[in-house]
## 1
Amino acid sequence: MDNRQEQRPDQYLHSQMIQAPQENPQTDRASEQKPKRKLFWPVFLAVLLTASLTFIVTAAAGYLFYGDAIRDSSVNGLPSDPGETESPPVETTKNTLTFTDKEGVEEALDKFSAIYNLLQSNYYQEFSDAEMIEKMTLGLVEQMGSPYTFYLTPEYHESVEDSMKGEYVGIGAIVMRDRDGSYVVNDIIPDSPAEGAGLYVGDRFLQVDDKDASDFEDVGQLAAFVRGEEDTQVTLVIYRPVEDRELTLTITRRGITNVSVRHRMLDETVGYIHLTEFSDHAAENFENAVLDLMRQGALDLVIDLRNNGGGYAHECVNMLDVLLPAGTVASIEGREDGESYKDEWKTTTAALVPDEMRYVILLNQYSASASELFAGAMRDMGKAVIVGEQSFGKGVGTMMWQLSDRSAVQITGFEYFLPKGESVEGVGLMPDYPVELAPEVEIKAPNQRTLEEDTQLQKALELLKRQED
């Protein structure tokens, strides 16, 4: 898998996830053809998650078909174009089922057929066959067991794509989904409507315009609902843990331009880079920031990844290429076209910085995915120490598959391992120097904190203090 490419994660007001690279797709892996078998059901799609009364069932995927037609089942691979941007539509063979094994399929289809007919005949509301198929499709995706695998409507998909370009109409809050399913504000864009309305980091969404937050399938769907036409209003009901109370905020949407990389000098020798997400052009902007800080006299760097929920894998690897010599920064294990594969992500060029440059990376509980890959690789390579709090723990990556109607399915396709073999999935990274912020400081976005109240940044400066000759 070649990762050195431009690409569209796991979202302003969108889910940010490590993404597989896009522009250099993998070559197609051969699919082993299974013996053909005949199917005699009135179905062309086998999968179900829908309920009526006491029925809750999930079955295999396929299209429904009717009559006495006999269809053959064969193994068909999807196009190998990982990435979350404009992936080509998935080609499917009409009115066929795709299975990779025989065991249990016949029984599962029998059960599926019986329940489908019961629901179609007895459910108190009537749905067309097309509507039933759509419900089954959503049910299959939702039952895969990964919170990072989900379906996107065409509108939702377009909204997610726009957000990773750094410009959209919304309120300027970055949101992630916590492990308990809550939607939490993890960063706020400076001078945005969200900041003006008094939204805090850590605020939890309860409602968006009378729609319960628990009804959203994932954070990207919530994000698409919060966005809208410029100068229109959205009403949010949030719970603020630091004050233990609910608040209602009405915020006017406007055009948002996010600058994902900001930098400045902290003192005569220490530069500071704040990265909010690994979005389009983040690596290019990061490289420019590093070079500018060096021109200003920076000998060491603080890299602030607090509240950074991740983004594109290739942007992360390209940023590491600025700081590290050529080498392996992650090992990948995943599945594609029905086959398991292993791969490595590597830096390929000489570092642009002096070998003696030192780094402190700031993390907190909202640092996830590509942030953890970046920080973990830098530490494993002996180049950085980590200050702050235990990170989120997202060690898997996703691929976005665009369908023919411009809807899409995001699929958890691989797990990554740091240079020393560690996976952060469900675990996160433990800091070398644990430092917590005061509650009244933690609710502020990193750019809103002063040096006097930011004890984590103070610790970083202390570690980088150079002895005077």
## 2
Amino acid sequence: MNDTATHDLVVHGDIALSNGMVLKAGWLGITNGLVTGSSETPLSGIETVDAYGHLVLPGFVDAHVHTRSCRDEGITATTKAAAAGGTTTVIDMPFDKPARPVNSRERFEAKVADITDEAVVDVGLYATFPPEGDLGIIAEMAAAGAVGFKVSTIEVDPIRFPRIPDGRLYEAFQEIAHTGRVVAAHQENQEIVLAQAKAFQARGDTTPVDHALSRPAVAEAEAAGRLLELAYWSGARLHMVHGTLPRTFELIEWNRAKGVRASGETCIQYLLLTMDALREQGGRAKCNPPLRSQENVDGLWRQVQEGLIDIVTSDHSPYPLHRKETDDIFEAYAGMPGVETLGTLLYSEGVATGRIGLGRFLELVSAGPATLFGYSQKGHLEAGADADFVVFDPDAEWTLDESKMHYAVGWSPYHGRRVRGRVVSTWLRGRCVYKDHAVAVAPTNGRFLPARDDDDRSSNGSRESYSNDRA
């Protein structure tokens, strides 16, 4: 112990700054779980993390996970996997199983209590609302700390994951606009998707790749355009989740130019996998919206480079293999694990290949999602921020092995993939939560992160300025 120490913890390594620049062999000071600043000269601390030769990155923020899409996974397994992958904050979707969507203040507060008992990293929460009933619950859940409200234009389950009719969506968008929270939308045209699936099954076209072929691009693009119109006329702030098409982000950009408050994310699988993965992996590679063509993958990478895509997420939604590997692809569950590999895969395929720089990488998985959802204390290593950081070896070359990951379901669509860059350790508010290939703490280290009411993103003007004068 250093009796003259001025910090609780100091970190010595290549410190990644908010502008993407790196303070080589620099020093990061941490006291009371907060960053106090960085320095080119040595700092003294009670403890020192020697990360010399490694990058010290802000903790990753995965803004799209489903901790309870599968009862076998849950908050603890998901957040352990997050910690192992360098992710220190996740934002969890509300479509929980068994058939318990987070669509009331009581359910929201019960899930907050579970986070306190079960989470390894910090967790923000989306809420949702049912297709019928009093929309006053939106303001109640916003007051309880919901970061936003997830909706879908296609029905997966009538109770857990329903389709919200357009008339109800329009009313809800207006209510959400008053809260300043975001509307996060799954965009697929239900009529197109169901009609195509029925036709494919009638012909006996039920092989894995038929899943992608039966959900054509127009289904996503049409629904995206419809949601953006609702945002335009209601004044709501729209976040388009898991976009798979360059067209989707073109529509977002066009609408932004017209004053619509909109953002968009793609997921790591849509940057790394094509529909050929369905031929190779079968139901393991089934997700909704589906994997697309190489042309679409290339187009998304161009938009990542150009800044049209705001953030990259995992859409972590794992299921056991017996739910994935079915004879009829339309009977297989849709979703895959991904929270543990998000940062490593984007670094490997983006930064290490020269497609994007380190600054853009951090915009996509650290500062960008933190800013977008109002978590100003996350996603950067400036003074006053939570001391969430990742010691990262940029030169490590290794092979992903699903048997060594922390998912309860025990598999990964990236098994056997060679990557460059590896998480050495993960720290949450100055406390180590992952090191030496093992999660270093028990659950309860993570905290619930309520949305901030004082965030300037909440200023949305009057609803009349968006609706009445455009009627």
## 3
Amino acid sequence: MHVKDVKKVVLAYSGGLDTSVILRWLQTTYQCEVVTFTADLGQGEELEPARRKAEMFGVKEIFVDDLRETFVRDFVFPMFRANTVYEGQYLLGTSIARPLIAQRQIEIAELVGADAVAHGATGKGNDQVRFEIAYYSLKPDIKVIAPWREWDLTSRTRLLEFAEANQIPIARDKRGEAPFSVDANLLHSSSEGKVLEDPAEEAPEMVYQRTIRPEDAPDASTVVSVDFERGDPTAIDGVALSPAALLARLNELGRANGIGRLDVVENRFVGMKSRGVYETPGGAILLVAHRGIESITLDREAAHLKDSLMPRYAELIYNGFWFSPERRMLQAAINESQHSVSGRVRLRLYKGNVSVIGRESPNSLYSMKVVTFEDDQGAYDQTDAQGFIKLQALRLRLGAMAGRRGGAL
């Protein structure tokens, strides 16, 4: 892209060292007007300093948007309807935030008449893919600037030198090399790099920011109930809460009980393996609770089909295809499955563990009359099982009679 091609760019801006350098670099390299956009996704940081820093750089149009409710209602909850985990473990806390940030960036670009957007993701990670696929899905003709793939500021020393040369304020605690990088939002915190790069070494306790050690959690368990309506949580202990407030409350409960820690080596979309330490206290509780209410409200075949779709759905989100037609198709099927998923689940939280201890629903498919070991008064005719078993075994019997081997290897 020729630098003269860009007149106005919307930058995803945190106010930290990297994006502050990017802001100044865009102004000096592209000679363009920069609009900053800072998203409050519940990362727990004060965002007004980002506004003030943008003003210091002469930015005229500054957007600081509280997107917490939108994030949980329109992105996190739809994902949790599918019980989504990537590679069997990761609850996709970073992945699910990127399409919302990208969506709002494009909305702002259209609002202010910008012809480009920019992000601070590196050329080695997944986020560059997630951001840019979302941009192009929403605005095919948008120009995308990815500074980490263009500039020569390839070390922290060079970033600091650029910052000092351009009068970019650097907090004293930011001058040294960070021991690891952190990304956070209301769903999770993610820590990667530096002291975490060797997967053989245990993560130091300082990495964990959202949970206490399970060993330090109370000796008495915590019992909590979660109410669901059509697959989405609506109340905790009978108290109705907004989506963001509900997730925040689950985070508090998870933190206090040491729940939601994960140390994982995952397969990045760009081809490499990476080690990450994640904390998803509220999400870990919500996953167990949602599966608990589904266990009594979903038909067996619907539940099994839904579980078979989940890995593909998780992969689409991880790889950045939230706005793809295939993700929308899967979402429609998942949403259809949730019409009857309403009721209450009771959970026991104890030293890093979450256990379902009760579930009830007006739509329950569980029948005590049928499953009882006592007299079911004709609700189930056990002699029907004989024909059922013979029909299920028919193809195996025919194979055995034809001389084909069966049984154990």
